[in-house]
Amino acid sequence: MRTSRRAVLALAVLPAAAAAATEEALNVAIREAVGDAAIEDGGIVLSVPTIAENGGQVPLTVLVDSPMTAADHATAIHVFATRNPTPGVASFRLTPWLARAEVQTRIRLAEDQRIVVLAQFSDGRVRRATAELRVTTGGCLS
Amino acid sequence: MTRPLSAPRIRIPRSARPGEVIEIRTLIEHPMETGLRHDGGAAIPRDMLNRLLVRMNGETVLAVDVRNGTAANPYHVFFVRMERTSSFEFTWTDEAGRIARAEARVTVA
User: Fold this and answer.
1) ipTM, 2 decimals?
2) Which residues pair with B75 in a beta bridge?
């Protein structure tokens, strides 16, 4: 059987393309970020497109419900990708100098997946939001 | 790998009223190469920023630890309430220790 150059290249990249982060890697990353704190859903507005045409540049907005006072504020926002080669996207360390606990950025996604966002608060609480996205063209390995 | 970091771009108002919330946008051109991509079989070397630090009058306002899932040309938007005329300093660092800086001043009156 004759193997074309294109086929050889496809085989060469296949193992990397299939290497999505495991559930375990995600859990390790989450526990590194927030420790053993109990995680409760809600209190976060996570805005992402339902379908990302270009997985290399996906807009993401996170708005956490917090008064952002010295006594009561969100201290961090952590963003994780569940089906990228590695789960870490970014961690935002917030301070009461911010008018609101809102950040906007652009992320990259290898394939259709769920995004997990955690918010930490000055009283030790941790809250979670998730969103499912479809990705037309993957943005991590291409 | 020895090229300097590119000059960041900041969008920030020059002035604000007391108590006004301003939007600050930052962008720095950078490939954010994870080291996981391959070019004809050979791995493309890792070349990543790892942090953006924003200070106002010397105090930390926001720090962003960027990881593999942050897109190339990292872009960040955030909001600050202005009480007095303030100086902002923006510092990006990469994993090789290179630094890019930008400064801005917002006059409050």
Assistant:
1) 0.95
2) B27
Q: CATH number of the domain that B91 lies in?
A: 2.60.40.10
Choose from A60, A93, A120, A135 for mutation: most chain B CBs within 10 A.
Answer: A93
**Whether A88 contacts A80, CB under 8 Å:** yes
- Tell me which CATH code domain A5-137 carries: 2.60.40.2470
CA–CA gap between residue B61 and residue A95 (Å, rounded) = 6
State the smallest CA–CA distance between residue B103 and chain A in angstroms: 17
Relative to beta strand A51-54, strand A44-47 is unpaired
Q: Which two tokens stand for residue A114?
A: 């769920």
Number of domains comprising chain B: 1
Each residue of A72-105: pLDDT tens digit?
999 999 999 999 999 999 999 999 999 999 999 9
pLDDT digits (tens, 9 = 90+) for B55-97: 999 999 999 999 999 999 999 999 999 999 999 999 999 999 9
Nearest-angstrom CA–CA distance, B93 and B101: 9
pLDDT at B8 over 60: yes
Residues of A in contact with B67 (CB under 8 A): 86, 88-91
Decide the pairing of beta strands A74-81 and A113-121: antiparallel
